[in-house]
Amino acid sequence: MLIIYVVAFIAIFYFMAIRPQQRQRRAHQALLSALKKGDRIVMASGIYGTVKRVEENMVVVEVAKGVNMKIARRAVAEIIRDSTEARAVAPEGPSTSRSKRWRADIEAGASDDMDTGGGDSAEDADDDPWSKDVWKKDD
């Protein structure tokens, strides 16, 4: 009777855990082999981008205009085929006369807001709480 329980447990484990995982791995391998230049992708980290170059174990992805990232090929989670899904990244602006400027701001991204100076200036150090000793305990 114990042998029947053990065999049943192994069969349930196989059909509930091992087999679906193998199917998912094969589907991901097929996705990676179909990856080509120009594809819109979502990385495992949730970052959207466009494939610029595909190599054996690496993919170069453009995440914003002029911003390229080298990522591991296995970090690609999904290829976006539907244009409505891609619009979730850069939604259409309001239907006013300013919508073209609004869309241009989205396409430019947050690069204007980001500090590209490297954080070496004294002004940046004043704003950065990690550069101060505020986290030390006063004795």
Give average pLDDT, whole number: 76
Write out the strand line-up for the largest beta sheet, numbering strands in chain order. Answer: 4-3-2-1-5
At the fold tier of CATH, the topology name of the largest domain is SH3 type barrels
Structural class: alpha+beta
Low-confidence stretches: none
Percent of residues in beta strands: 15-25%
| Biggest sheet architecture | 5 strands, antiparallel
Summed up, the domain count is 2
Number of strands: 5
Radius of gyration (CA) equals 24 Å
Which CATH class of the largest domain applies here? Answer: Mainly Beta
Question: What distinguishing features does this structure have?
Answer:
elongated, single chain, alpha+beta, 5 strands, 139 residues, SH3 type barrels, 5-stranded antiparallel beta sheet
